[in-house]
Amino acid sequence: MSGSGSTTAAPTTKATVQDTKDTSEPAVPQKPAAALEEDDEFEDFPVEDWTQDAAGPPAGTTHLWEESWDDDDTSEDFAKQLKEELAKVNRK
Amino acid sequence: MAYSIFDDFRRAVQNEDGYLLASTITPRAPEHDGGRLYDFYRTTNHYSVQTDFRYAIVYNNTAGLSKTEGNHWLEVYVVYWKAIGQLRVAEELTNQGKDKEAEWNKVYDAWRDVANALIKGYSSSAFPAWTIPCLYVAGKYLRAFAIKSDAAAAKFRKNTTFNAGLQDDIAGAMSTNEKLEDAARQINRTFSLCISDRAPLEESRKWGVYYTTNLLFKTYFKLNAIGLSKNILRSLQATKTDMPPLEAFPKSHQVTFKYYVGVILFLEEDYVQAEENLTEAWQLCHQDAQKNRELILTYLVPCHLLTTHTLPTFELLAPYPRLQELFAPLGQCIKRGDLAGFDAALAAGEDEFVKRRIYLTLERGRDIALRNLFRKVFVAGGFEDPREGDDRGQKIRKTRVPIAEFGAALMIGMGHTQERMEQEEVECLIANMIYKNLMKGYISRTHNMLVLNKKGAFPGTGI
């Protein structure tokens, strides 16, 4: 999306600023930020079209989602904690 | 070298190569020919440009253009030449460190003339549909120059104002996006040109519909005017029967479209539809497009959490360290029923989440964390003693759980940072869980107990 021609001359300019926070330079590649890149804008793809085998998650990635609870967490531990907590109440 | 652009022009016309044609009016020199724009600009001057180009296009007409079409292209190249002139001036000033003097607004205005000349060529049916990539270039750089222009203006305003802070923002807010708003209007015209074309499909501008739509989405998002995207979606819906299906368009158009539609739906809290679109975008997205894949996941993960109550695996997030940083802590706290941890993780990532507009969605993940905490209470309660008549080995969990135990669990889950809750408060939380179908049972006031369903006390969690 750059408006600057890629002449042999110099590097592009420093960020121009919008609003109060440092936002993405509009027409220049973004410097990697500590957090997520400011820009939530989809980039242009390097090619216009591709076949399905060039698409999707990397080959072999099968396990994408997992259950949100954990049975591995030893419930004995929790049961103990629970007992202790309840005991505190009864003491009061 | 002198007229290489017109050589390309002729070749493009002869071969009906839309992308080659578009490259001749792209205001960015190709990597292998860094001085191209400069060379092009130097081939003529303000006095001769009209005549010189007329010779190159209309008279030297080996490509066999009609006079009308030739004249339209002439106008396009003349204004393009002028735009290059403005661009060069701005770039040189910038390269010299004099970016305050660079007049990007003039670059924008000059480029708008190029867009206009193209639009005229299409609306008068002079340009055939295969040349449509030219409209893509027009739209793309309308955005690019508009953004640059607005940014420069904002910086200028900032440097000349004596008021710091809030007041500047409020005062500036009205006109901070002047050029980009204009760009939106121009791109909208190109969108209309595409969608309203009545020619048969093989010769139709309809094939440019999704590219221009995507440009508009990007623009509305940047303008924070996402609602305007709905108008586009309505127009698309209205012409559905006349249009080729989305699947017939290049994948880059499809993926970009699905991403934006997914996010638009997400922001409207239509999570089911959002998920559908984002998942499809994910499946179709080119595997090397790292940033885009990351963007898709940024919305797909919270969405998925709400629709299916599942979390991303380590495997899923592995290629995206930034997403891991953001989502993994939350995920772990949800799993453990660690409410205090969840709140802390949410607060820690608040800036990022808000920026991406996923904060409110993620906040709802707390329900899952709470559900998991209560589930642990149920599991910790163990099993009923086997009674006569029960199937041998068929253990049933104790379904009558004192409310007090949930209260105690809350103390644990909150890391003992809170006052003990009143019984009513605990009951309220439980009631909410039941209402949201995360738990199944009823509260027995007389016994101060929660009576859980024997089957499916915690739907979807195996118990």
Automatic annotation (TrEMBL), chain A:
Residues 7-16 have a biased composition (Low complexity). It holds the Pfam family DSS1_SEM1. InterPro entries: DSS1_SEM1 (IPR007834). One of its GO terms (cellular component) is nucleus. Keywords: Nucleus, Proteasome. Its main location: nucleus. Residues 36-51, 67-76 have a biased composition (Acidic residues). CDD domains: DSS1_Sem1 (cd13768). It comes from the Eukaryota. It is found in: Nucleus. Residues 1-76 are annotated as: Disordered. One of its GO terms (biological process) is double-strand break repair via homologous recombination. Component of the 26S proteasome, a multiprotein complex involved in the ATP-dependent degradation of ubiquitinated proteins. PANTHER family: 26 PROTEASOME COMPLEX SUBUNIT DSS1, 26S PROTEASOME COMPLEX SUBUNIT SEM1. Belongs to the DSS1/SEM1 family. This is 26S proteasome complex subunit SEM1. It comes from Cryomyces minteri.
From TrEMBL, chain B:
It holds the Pfam family PCI. PROSITE patterns: PCI. GO terms for molecular function: double-stranded DNA binding; RNA binding. It comes from the Eukaryota. Residues 255-457 form the PCI domain. Belongs to the CSN12 family. This is Protein CSN12 homolog.
